[in-house]
Amino acid sequence: MLKPRSTITRELINLDGLWRFAVENPNVPEPWKGVLGGNLEAAVPSSYNDLFADQKIRDHVGWVWYQRTVRVPRGWTGERVLLRLDAATHEGKVYVDDVLVARHVGGYTPFEADITDHLSPGDEFRLTVGVNNELTSATIPPGSISVSQDGRRQQTYLHDFYNYAGLARSVWLYSKPERHISDITVVTGVIGRTGVIDYSVETSHKTPVRVRVLDAAGHEVSSAEGTQGTLTIEDVSLWRPGVAYLYNLVVELLDGEDVIDSYTEPFGVRTVEVRGTQFLINGEPFYFTGFGKHEDTAVRGKGHDNAYLVHDFQLLDWVGANSFRTSHYPYAEEVLEFADRHGIVVVDETAAVGLNLGVQGGLTGVGPKPTFSPETFNHETQAAHAQHLREVISRDKNHPSVVMWSIANEPASNEDGAREFFEPLVQLARELDPTRPLTYAAVMFATFQNDKIADLFDVLSINRYYGWYIFTGDLQSAEIYLERDLRGWVEAFGKPIMMSEYGADTMPGQHSIWDMPWSEEYQQSFLDMNHRVFDRIDGFVGEHVWNFADFQTSNGIHRVDGNRKGVFSRDRKPKASAHTLRARWTGLNGAKPSVDDTEETEVLENGTTGLDAAPALEGAK
Ligand code: BDP
After folding, report:
1. In the listed set 153, 176, 199, which residue is the last one of a domain according to the structure?
2. What is residue 605's predicted lDDT score, i.e. its pLDDT?
3. CA separation (Å) from 348 to 129, 293, 326, 328, 425?
């Protein structure tokens, strides 16, 4: 799906700003039919939850309404007019005056409405957007809704980050010609010094197509005709981690000599490949350093913010990170474009977080239900996951920064039914994008002995909390069990392996000379312990600390104003561990840290394994 852009044939108006806002009201069943009642206004883009000093709005489960007036420029006569919402979390309904023009389920992917037939250029209209925050077994991510004793609807879900909702990304009005370009796919390869670009263009009508490649200075370096073909760039400048180089693909629809539509898609020339236990970018082994992140800041929740975008990337650079995972949902497109321009490598994750009922056990004393069954996560869930996958890959396929898709975070890959659930999704992802490796982040309960899906994927991403949720404060035992666990995966699957999550909650200002959980020193020692293990394992291709910054979570006794595993606080101040990481990562340039501690840890031979230790985690979370 093309991002709306202003070109010589297309105009673009940003609709961000303050919109009228109201929570659904049973007395006003069709709120789009007039001006929204009340006097609330909400910022777009922003999640709405933390904007108002009103617990009822924050906790509301169901629809909220946004509204503003929009004028279609008089000059757009003869053009198609579209509305584009970069996201409505988790479901959106769009009305132009009284008419429903679009409905979309899935909170982290864009959707559009062609509204040409509902108005005339020069007209002003009432744009009303309903947004629903409900999560069920038919949504990705999943959740469930219950009704409290006093009749309030309550949402529960299987991930810890707070269920922020609303219009957290931009809204656009744009024009495009009647005969237009509807999609572009760019796949790049390299032979010697020559860049080889396979392109394909979809158009609304059968019309001649011309494509031209411009280098960063705007010089044409290659061209071709037709809706698909191969372009070559001599003496190509590659897109490399840390050294981004972007070309522009200018696609034009022609009517004789006239250009009837034009669209410019930036792209980078690079290759990605998994070979043996190596992850190769441009044929060179790449070692991931960085974080799992969140879209999360105070007040705006998951609202996209360019100031935080710039600052977060500055901090990534400062700390020596070369990559991050879009845990646990695809981020705003601006984030990927920024990564493209600045050479940061991205593992693009879907919103399939929490396909795991196992984590519900423990404290409640009630045994967990099977995750995959007709009554729990079933064909409907799988269909929602498949649709989400289509939308993510369609949106993000041309970003050079995206080197791998993460299909899910911590699914119950150890449970019966996991293979039946995931095998068709893996197949679908490979059909949609045969070029990028696939991974999923494996939960602690999924071990190399009981995991049912790892062989379907290219890279093993492992989430482990030895020294935090288990062996809390006992880094010596943690080190032994972590090493045994990771070596088991390496030996069982012979695939590249990376640590996709490891982290310890830390209160800035809390200090200790002992291994004291929550202290800044403990977070440092915890990371050091993990790093010693990683450096001893061949086939290890990367480390993503959990998390880049502290983030807001749902209410619960395990969190103090959110998850505190950030290496930076929520307002982006470094904890001591930021300096530990900076010392380790700076100057690596994608190479694996050298092993300066080659001493092997003695592995326990008493029969206990990481698998045996896992149940302790259930009670701990
Ligand atoms: C992992 C989840 C992540 C959590 C983290 C934690 O993947 O989303 O925030 O645990 O508990 O299981 O900090």
Report:
1. 176
2. 46
3. 28, 11, 5, 9, 16
Domain that holds residue 81: 11-176
Angle between helices 306-319 and 576-585 (to 10 degrees): 60
How many other C-beta atoms can be found within 10 angstroms of the C-beta atom of residue 104?
19
Tokens of 601: 């840890």
What pLDDT shows up at residue 493?
Answer: 96
Query: Is the Cβ–Cβ distance between 459 and 497 less than 8 Å?
Result: yes
Ligand 1: residue of 157, 158, 160, 293 to mutate (most ligand atoms within 8 A of CB) is 160
* pLDDT at 601 (0 to 100): 43
Residue 371 in contact with ligand 1 by CB distance below 6 A = no
Q: Is 79 in the pocket of ligand 1 (CB under 6 A)?
A: no
Counting the structural domains of the chain, the total is 3
Quote the pLDDT of residue 600: 46
Centre of ligand 1 from the C-alpha of residue 160, in Å: 7
Evaluate whether residue 6 is within a structural domain.
Answer: no
Structure tokens, 590 = 């994608």
User: What is each CA distance from 118 to 34, 177, 299, in whole angstroms?
Assistant: 17, 17, 36
Q: Are residues 230 and 319 in the same domain?
A: no
Buried b (16+ CB within 10 A) or exposed e, 283-310: eeebbbbbbbbbbbbeebbbbbbeebbe
pLDDT of residue 362: 52
* Residue 611 maps to a domain: no
Low-confidence residues of the chain: pLDDT under 50: 597-621
Q: List the structure tokens of 606.
A: 């008493």
Catalytic, 501? Answer yes
Ligand 1 pocket, residue 550 CB under 6 Å: no
Domain boundary among 176, 203, 232: 176
The CATH number of the domain where 82 resides is what?
2.60.120.260
Q: Residue 558: its pLDDT value, please?
A: 85
Indicate whether 396 and 409 sit together in one domain. yes
User: Quick one: pLDDT at residue 609?
Assistant: 40
CATH of the domain at 266: 2.60.40.10
pLDDT score recorded for residue 549 = 98
C-beta of 409 in contact with ligand 1 (< 6 A): yes
